[in-house]
Amino acid sequence: MVMEWVRFLIVIFFVLFGMSIFFLEIFGVYRFRFVLNRMQIAATGDTLGIGLCLVGLMAANGFNWATAKMALVIVFLWCASPVSSHMIARMECATDETLLSNCRVVTLEEVEREAKEEGEGKDGDI
Known about the structure:
Blueprint: H1 2-31, H2 35-61, H3 65-95, H4 99-102, H5 108-125
């Protein structure tokens, strides 16, 4: 009897946490202005939210073939979501004419110089 309640609480935790990730994702998609930011939050939210909800459903279902199928769905989504997000980002970068006005292009030398200046500033503060 106690183990059923523990399993029930685990299921509730995972499903509610997954649903809260979905709601945060919806907020982020409407909050961000640029397509790449929206795409990043949507892909992250989908992967994490679906994964948590499916883990909760797996705990509710017990160990059987349906649980194994849900595990395979999680593996498929974790493989497919980053690939599709990457392809959408590449398409956006290739077709958006205003992309450079929305971001800053930095060379490797500038990054190294900024890192060196930041490191020197921290050494002087210590």
